Amino acid sequence: MARVSSNSLDRLCIAGLLLALSIVQEACPADGCSVQVSQPGEMSVVEDTSSVTIPCAVTAPGCPGHRSVYWFVFRASSHEQLQLHTHGKYAPQGDSLDISPVHANDSGVYYCGIAFSGSTAPGARSTGKGTVLLVRGRLHVANPQGKALLSTVIVLLFLYNLAIIILLIHKKNRNVVRFFRFPQNNSTWRNNFRAVVQEMYR
């Protein structure tokens, strides 16, 4: 019986591995699947809006099999994968995401993820760059009665200030007239004039 050297055994093992690899590649050929996901960079909505839809546009040439859509959100203090339900708060609209209703704590960065289960290509899974959703507070407008009351108060304050100004002007003018009506010596004249000026600029 011929003796087989260790080098021959190594070559046989390598050849067997290469043959097995070629068989696997023929059974599962690589495809040209390449997923591209695009999202808007930022969206803004008013709090308590009935709903908002975050778009997710997908192009996937040469990708076979079923397409799965995932949505993730990163908030200020937490992050999670959203559970999508047709009639839930987070509902799929094709590849896009519908949020209904919208509250202040829905602000965050939302990522759309796409995966093709029937492809082994590295590009069969991809995520977008994220959409920043900013939920603004709603401005509360006063009721008509409150606005009318505020207008009345402003008018009354204006009239009150106007009356005070008129009285001050009248008082200062009367002091000036009294000063010029009675002749006095120079020292008294200067003192009275200084008093009138101080009164006018008080």
TrEMBL record:
Residues 1-29 form the signal peptide. The chain crosses the membrane at residues 148-169. InterPro entries: Ig-like_dom (IPR007110), Ig-like_dom_sf (IPR036179), Ig-like_fold (IPR013783), Ig_sub (IPR003599), IGSF6 (IPR039089). Keywords: Membrane, Signal, Transmembrane, Transmembrane helix. Coiled coil: none annotated. Residues 29-112 form the Ig-like domain. It comes from the Eukaryota. PROSITE patterns: IG_LIKE. This is Ig-like domain-containing protein. It comes from Lepisosteus oculatus.
